[in-house]
């Protein structure tokens, strides 16, 4: 079993390889610079790989994402349909995401998005105080990250509601809505909206002119999920018309966000460069190594993705 380690954008990819070798020196780890015979490769470790490469791997059986998201793999049509795909599920990433969402929710609750705008105009104006228990924070997606984030926001004192796909109970005791039919009722209540959906055919562009219009006047958007969830022009219009009071965005349709993108010049939009929850290669290497061992033993890996539903 040879493992090809691929990454187009990870700054610390060498560290993954060192860690994996340290855990099990018998792993046959190869990199794109020195891949050997491509017919040996049965496993790929990847973040945002180039789809073309998969056409050259006739014996691929398993792809391990170095992140929690797998949309970058689902979007590779050349990965064989019968290959298994697994993702990272790491508590450290839940905590980072909760910190990110709390930061955004606190910003909106304390009216900082307005003060950021006023600062660009040297304008001294106090806003009316808000009370956090009167603010409803809605979390789209109550999966590994969304349920944890919802609990953290609730523990802080916000009124939290959620929206998910099926009626099954999430790992959170907040009240929740489910399915497309209940989306409008959910959105109408969200003073602050946190998107933590996976990017699938059903959720692409879910935040658009129609759905953003359902949010209460002055609502604030936090999107650390995927840029593909948001119609960026519709969001900009909603912010410039003051229907929304601003947004905290970590992910974009095109990354890196192009220099000429209008979001850079919008004072009530705060931008971070896809860092809301970063994989820790030290802890994540342990679970990746475990999956390589399971595959080597002919067993199913942990944290498999259900490719029929796309997440
Ligand atoms: P996950 O565990 O797969 O969670 C999926 C949740 O979304 C579930 O509650 C699911 O509902 C719900 N859902 C899926 N499709 C839906 C639909 N069509 N309608 C309504 N609800 C739907 O995802 P996760 O691991 O928490 O990740 C959340 C997002 O964060 C992903 O987009 C991921 O790529 C992103 N992420 C970003 C960063 C970053 O640094 N910015 C880091 C890690 C992850 P059910 O429970 O009913 O199935
Ligand atoms: C980051 O975006 C991840 O999916 O882990």
Automatic annotation (TrEMBL):
Residues 105-276 form the D-isomer specific 2-hydroxyacid dehydrogenase NAD-binding domain. InterPro entries: D-isomer_DH_CS, D-isomer_DH_NAD-bd, NAD(P)-bd_dom_sf. Keywords: NAD, Oxidoreductase. It comes from the Bacteria. This is Glyoxylate/hydroxypyruvate reductase A. It comes from Wohlfahrtiimonas larvae.
